[in-house]
Amino acid sequence: MIKHYFAYYSQKYASKWLVLAIDLTTVLVTFFITYVIRFNFTLDFDNNQFLIQLPLLLLIATTSFLLVGSYKSVIRHTGFTDVMNLFKSVALMTFMTIFLVVFNRVTELIPDFTIPLSIIIIHSLLSFIVLSASRLAFKILYRYGKCRFMTSKKILIYGAGDSGIVTYNALVTNTKTKFEVVGFIDDNLKKNGKLINGVPILPYKSITSSFIKINQIDEIVVATQQIASDNIMHLIDSLMDTQVKITKVPPIEKWIHGELNTNQIKKVQIEDLLGRAPIQIDNPNLLNEFKGETVVVTGAAGSIGSELVKQLSHFDVKHLILIDQAESPLYDLQQDLKQQGKHNFTAIVADIRDGLRIDGIFQEFKPTMVFHAAAYKHVPLMEASPYESIKINVNGTKILADISSRYNVKKFVFVSTDKAVNPTSVMGATKRMAEMYISCLQKESKTKFITTRFGNVLGSNGSVIPLFKKQIEQGGPLTLTHKDITRYFMTIPEASQLVLEAGTMGKGGEIFIFDMGESVKIYYLALNMIKLSGLRFPEDIDIKITGLRPGEKLYEELLANGENTLSTYHKKIMISKTRELDYEKVKSEIEALCITNRFQNNNIVLKMKQLIPEYKSNNSDYEKFDRRVKVYEQSNVVKSNQVDKTFINL
Q: What domains appear along the chain, each with residue ranges and CATH number?
C-alpha cells in the first residue's frame, strides 16, 4: 500500500520537481557566469565569499520559486503567463537577496558577508533570460520532435482580426495535427503586407487557383463572422478546380469554455450562403411578455415547434405545455430540456383534432398563450389527401382556436406559410382557410388571434436542403422539379424569433410577414451544395429535372392579390392588409366545409375553391374544378345583375 502510494505521487509530481531542480541549477550556473562577466571573464574573485553566497542564494531561489509556483507550468505549452510567472520568481528572488544583503550590513548577522549590487542586478537579468529561453527552446524542440513525422496541413485564415488570431493560436498549438498557417486573408487594404507572428496578411483578390496550387494550400478557414456570403461564394466558385476545403469557425458563444477547439472548425454550410444578413430581433419586451405565462406549443416536436420551445424555455415562463402526436420526437425534445436543467414543462402526446382531449388539457393547465405550429405541410402528399389536409390544417386549427377563445387565452399565434398566398395547392388553400377562420373568430372573441406568414425553413423536416444532402451522400443525382423554380428561405431560429415577436407586438387580427430579401433559385442552391461538398457538376454529381409536382408553384409570394403592407417598429417585419371578408358568412362556410369533409366528399376541393376565389390549382387534377368555379361565379354575377334590374324596375 505504501509502495503504491509512493509510486503514484512520485509519478504525479516528478515532472514539476524536475523542472524546479533544473530552474535552481540554472540560477546557480548563471550566478557563476555573472561573477565571470563582472570580473572581465576571469576567475579573479573571492572563492570563499562565492561558496558562502551560493547556498544562501539557493535557499532564496527555492523560496521564491515555491511561493510563485513557476515550476508547475507544463513546459511544452509555455505561454505569456508562464514567462510572467518566471519574471515574478526572479523579481522576488532579487528583492529577497537585496533585502538580505542590506539587513546583514545593518545587523552583521553573517560576518564579512555581502553580495555586490551589480552582481545581483546582472544575475537577475541573466537568470530571467536563460530561464525563459530554455523553456521556449524546449517547447520548439518538443513540437519539432513530435510533429516532424506528422503530415502538415497548409492553411489560409480568412480574417486578420481578433478571431483570426485566436484561430491561428488554436491551429499552431494543436498537437494531434500539424498545421502550417501560410497567410491571413483580409478585405481591409490597410492590413495588406503586414505580418502577424511572422505570417503575411494577403489581399482577398490575390487568392486564386494558381496561388492555391503553387502554395499547396489544403484548407481556407473563415475566422470572421462578418464575411459577406457573396465573398464565400466567390471563393467557392473561383477555387472549383482545386481540392481546397473551405471551413468556418463557429461564433464565440459556441466555443467550449470560451476557448476555440480545432474540432469545432466545420465545413461552410448552405445556411451561411442565405444571400442576406440574418434577421436579428432584440426586443427587451419579450422578457416581460412571457414572464409568468403558461404557454401551449402545438407541433412542439417539429422543426419550428421545437425551436420555439427552446427559445421560450430561456424566458421566465410559468409553465410550458408541449403538445404533439409524434411520440418519439416529443420524447427526444423532453430529454433535451431535462439535460438543460429545465423542469417547468409538461410533454403531452395528443392530437389537436381531438376536441375532448384538447379541452381537458386546457381545463387542467389554464394556458394564457398558444403557439400553433402543428400542421401537415408537404404539398404533393396533401394534394393526394385533401381529407387529411382539411382535417388537421383547417379543422384542427378551428378546434384549437375555439377552445382557446372559450378559455379566454390572451394570445393565439398561428404559424402559416407563404403557400397560403394565392394558393395553387390543397395544402396552401387549407392554410389560407385557417387564416380566414381565426380572422373571423377575432371579431367575436376576447382572445387576440395573430398570424405569422413566412417562406421555406432551411433544414426543417422534409425541406429541400436535407433532401439534397441525402442525395449527395448517395452519389446523386440531385432531383429538381424545374430549373427556374425559386423559393424564399429563412433559418429555423429566424422563423421562431419572428413567431415570438409577433406574439409580443400583435394586437389581434394581424398577419405578420417578413422581408426575406431576394428569393433563391433552387437550381443555384443545388449547384452550391455540390460545390460545398467538394464535388463537381456534372462530372461527380448531376442534377436531374423531374417536372413540377402536383400543386407546386414556380414562384412563391408573400402577399395575395389586393393586399399591401403596413410597417412596424422593425424594418424587416410588416403587417399584411388583407382584403375584407364577410366574417359571418365565411365562418359558417368553413364550419360547414369541416363537417362535409368528415364524409370524405369527393367534391371537397371544389367547395374550397368556391370559398377561396384566388385558389387556382397548378399541375394538378383539380384544375378541372377551376373551370366549374369560373362558370359558377359568372352565373352568380348574372343572377345579381337580374336582381338589380328587377329592383330598378320596381
A: 2-145 (no CATH), 152-268 (3.40.50.720), 290-611 (3.40.50.720)
In the DSSP assignment, the letter for residue 368 is S
DSSP per position, 468-536: HHHHHHTT-PEEES-TT-EE-EEEHHHHHHHHHHHHHH--SS-EEEE---S-EEHHHHHHHHHHHTT--
Asked if 513 and 478 count as a contact pair (C-beta separation under 8 A), the reply is no
Give me the chain's average pLDDT, please. 82
For every residue of 60-99, DSSP letters joined together read HHHHHHHHHTGGGS-GGG--HHHHHHHHHHHHHHHHHHHH
Q: Are 453 and 576 in contact (CB under 8 A)?
A: yes
CB atoms within 10 A of CB 266: 10
Q: Do the beta carbons of residue 247 and residue 265 sit within 8 Å? A: yes
What cell was used for 578?
388583407
Of 488, 479, 472, 599, nearest to 547 (Cα)?
479
Q: What does each C-alpha distance from 342 to 298, 304, 339, 500 come to in angstroms? A: 19, 19, 7, 19
Helices 623-649 + 604-611 axis angle, to 10:
50
Q: What is the DSSP letter of 601?
A: -
Model confidence pLDDT, tens digit, residues 521-541 = 888 888 878 877 777 788 888
Orientation of helix 47-68 relative to helix 80-107, angle to 10°: 130
Degrees, nearest 5: CA angle 128-83-252: 165
**Cα(493)–Cα(278) distance, integer angstroms:** 10
pTM for this structure?
0.68
* 183: amino acid identity, one letter: G
State the amino acid at position 256 in one-letter form: I
The tens digit of pLDDT for each residue in 43-84 reads 877 777 888 888 889 999 999 999 988 888 777 767 778 889
Positive or negative CA dihedral for 622, 624, 625, 627? positive
Please give the Cα distance from 65 to 69 (Å, whole number): 6
- Rounded Cα gap, residues 63 and 100, in angstroms: 13
Count other C-beta atoms under 10 Å from residue 318's C-beta: 14
Contact 450, 506 (CB under 8 A): yes
Query: What are the φ/ψ torsions at residue 437 (nearest 5 degrees)?
Result: -65, -45
Task: Tell me the backbone φ, ψ of residue 75, rounded to 5 degrees.
Answer: -60, -40
Amino acid letter, residue 267: K
Query: For the CA atoms of the chain, what is the radius of gyration?
Result: 36
Q: Strand (E) positions, 505-622?
A: 511-514, 520-521, 543-545, 564-567, 573-577
- At 291, list the grid cell: 414572464
Residue listed under C-alpha cell 432584440: 282
Residue 387: HSE in the Cβ half-sphere, 13 Å Cα cutoff = 7
Angstrom distance (rounded) from CA 557 to CA 616 = 14
- The 10s digit of each residue's pLDDT in 261-297 is 556 666 666 666 655 555 666 666 777 889 999 999 9
